[in-house]
## 1
Amino acid sequence: MTGATGRVGGRVLARLLERGERVRALSRNPAAELPDGVELAVGSPGDTAAVTAALDGVDAVFLVLVGDVETEVRGFTAALTAAAPRLVLLSSSSVVHPVPHRIAEEHRAAETEVAAATARWTFLRPGPFHSNALWWTGSVRGTGTVRCLVGNRPGAPIDPDDVAAIAVRALTEDGHDGLAYELTGPQTLTSGDQVRILARAAGRPIRFEVAAAEQAVAAFTAAGSDPVVAEGNVAALRSREVPWGRPNGTAERLLGRPPRPFHAWAAEHAAAFG
Ligand SMILES: NC(=O)c1ccc[n+]([C@@H]2O[C@H](COP(=O)([O-])OP(=O)(O)OC[C@H]3O[C@@H](n4cnc5c(N)ncnc54)[C@H](OP(=O)(O)O)[C@@H]3O)[C@@H](O)[C@H]2O)c1
């Protein structure tokens, strides 16, 4: 698997280990701290030679792509042979967005490359993660304020651990090949709603403001994004045409229980906002 040191992948790893599965983690970091018993392979998902070596003897792959997604996916799929293992790709609900933006383009490109390389694919297309609220910890602690960069459109955020639980089903069961799952959480919430829930959980007032679109573009650019890409992404994230807020029942069906609501995540992470 890739992304084992990350948010969703870390939970996939933990859940696979709980099941007694053997796991090899491909990480860019040669000093990655992984649980006992996990085999570390060093390299990025785009490094075809590293991926070829890491795939040896593997039955199923969980693929997380971060950064230059299109280059990484090409490097990764070049390592797949006719006897390719089952492959579960962490994609994004943005692939079905009706407005053009870079996040959607790169995930669409990843899905296209993977589907061309193997028939044994499953695409997980989650919407925004509950854990995106961690972007706000610094300003909440510093000024008691969230200045939201992504606007205040209603969404149906999902717990990354629920995405991981579904990934583990797709990795370990038959019947998911060739299927794409759009995954939502159980409730429609705006960012402002999420901040009110966080304030209750943390037991402190938190002011909520929406940053002007130009300020959001400037912030993403300062964080390393190309300005044109940042402008397109900000416009899409704030667009009324993007259907963010529709809990669709797919996660519940795959989990066999309701997906975890945002208030449960907020209660667990309240200390980060205190
Ligand atoms: N956040 C959302 O709301 C959301 C919603 C839908 C889809 N997604 C998609 O989910 C994926 C991210 O999943 P995640 O949150 O679990 O990932 P993550 O925790 O951000 O990181 C995943 C892995 O990427 C590597 N990594 C982390 N930061 C990096 C950086 N700055 N440059 C290069 N590599 C880096 C690390 O692997 P190494 O061990 O190799 O360093 C890490 O384990 C993305 O494809 C994203 O588009 C996100």
Note: The longest helix spans residues 102-117.
## 2
Amino acid sequence: MPTITAEIRFADPKDASALASVHESAWRGAYSGIIPHRCLNGMIERRHSSWWTRAVNSGAGILVVDYGGEIVGYATMGRNRTNALAVRGEIYELYLKPAYQGVGFGRRLFNASQRLLKERGFSSVAVWALVDNAMATQFYEGMGGVAVADGEECFDGKKLRKVAYVWPKAE
Ligand SMILES: CC(C)(COP(=O)(O)OP(=O)(O)OC[C@H]1O[C@@H](n2cnc3c(N)ncnc32)[C@H](O)[C@@H]1OP(=O)(O)O)[C@@H](O)C(=O)NCCC(=O)NCCS
């Protein structure tokens, strides 16, 4: 019987259409009923596979969860974009296909992202999550993140609160 293992690796340009599909299913799962429908559709349409090809080719830090050849999750990361937060790095996005949530891939992807940021000189890390996305806030709290700031983002006129978690020093 073959053993299927999950590997966290750098995204490759050939992953672009799989990344677009993970993005769509994860964002619909996480944000339907939270972000207004039209706005969410627009955010998904912009992330077609050629967007992902460009992102991968640009050398941005993109990690994927490769489960027996299927891309089931991704994380993007880089320099912290919020001056008010006293950290160097930021995980911009961390998403899994709904069918692969809750089985430990998020923890592995988060740890790998933190390690990659540390290797690149960003030893402290922030993540922003929408307050209404309870799955995300519970996950980041479970991963030891400390909520240090909040903010607001407007989606097609609907204001949503967001919270910043930080990990002052990577493990
Ligand atoms: C949030 C997400 C990345 C977490 O990944 P995951 O693989 O589902 O989480 P894991 O199985 O690795 O869980 C790790 C820990 O997080 C916590 N956790 C995860 N999901 C949780 C939930 N729904 N409720 C409570 N705690 C949760 C637990 O502490 C868990 O610890 P344990 O392993 O000791 O039980 C994933 O569910 C996902 O992609 N969700 C939709 C997209 C999203 O919201 N992304 C974040 C945007 S900011």
Note: The chain has a mean pLDDT of 96.
